[in-house]
Amino acid sequence: xxxxxxxxxxxxxxxxxxxxxxxxxxxxxxxxxxxxxxxxxxxxxxxxxxxxxxxxxxxxxxxxxxxxxxxxxxxxxxxxxxxxxxxxxxxxxxxxxxxxxxxxxxxxxxxxxxxxxxxxxxxxxxxxxxxxxxxxxxxxxxxxxxxxxxxxxxxxxxxxxxxxxxxxxxxxxxxxxxxxxxxxxxxxxxxxxxxxxxxxxxxxxxxxxxxxxxxxxxxxxxxxxxxxxxxxxxxxxxxxxxxxxxxxxxxxxxxxxxxxxxxxxxxxxxxxxxxxxxxxxxxxxxxxxxxxxxxxxxxxxxxxxxxxxxxxxxxxxxxxxxxxxxxxxxxxxxxxx
Length: 337
Prior knowledge:
By secondary structure, this protein is of the alpha/beta class. It folds into two domains: 1-35; 43-333, TIM Barrel (Alpha-Beta Barrel). Helix content is 46%, strand content 16%. It has 14 helices and ten strands. It has an eight-stranded parallel beta barrel, surrounded by four helices. Strands 7-8 form a two-stranded antiparallel ribbon. A hairpin with a 3-residue loop joins strand 7 (232-235) and strand 8 (239-242). The longest helix is centred in the N-terminal third of the chain and has 34 residues, at 2-35. It is globular.
């Protein structure tokens, strides 16, 4: 009888402690929600998408057709990565047709572009240094990288559709990505300075992973910060997990880098696939992320309270549409682009 009573007393103590921890967490959440209020009402948020020609190609799509369809969807704000290995596949040999076509189509529809340059730009494998540059010495490779950045800025800085530049994508998050080269110390600062020199009129942003780490180091280098917002990710051995992050945490980190402007540069609007998307049956893809998930992620972003939100996954919505699954595409039509 005494052992049973001790067991009951132990369970009671642990239950009491758990209740106390939950109560503290609830109080912290309420206090921080009030202390770091939402600064932008939902109706004042501008929405756009990241559009990756490389990702569209990996899905078996024609990138230009997919981009035109996204314009027809109503999107008028885009983040467009300019992949170094695509525009300079051989040293000093340039291939501009694809990016020229995207800029032309955007301009014709009155859309605006945030153009991303650097060795790291959006989409896996994160780094897009051409093979010919990988064999160069570090100083020579940096010089060639800056020559590519210069070529992009000089080609498009007179296009009104380009509203700002992004230099590198999550440059201090080197643990993620498949990168054969590493940046030299101070490279981001020098790269941003080059873009400012070439185009003093437009602001320069860089980006940070929203769920991991802090933003001060990146914020020191650029005019503004874009942050990723992911809700559910996949990791081997653990499978799918949803981040238990309250929205005030993003607002607090944004306050720590004030007065720098903070936007959401990647709002998850597609699954985090364990395999390549094309290796997953369509019905399983939709089961991983559907229109309800898109609506829920949009509401979450609204509670963060920034004035610009770039969605991540428009190419995939179009891919589903071409495979007779238009639900997400139709859901996206209701977004106030």
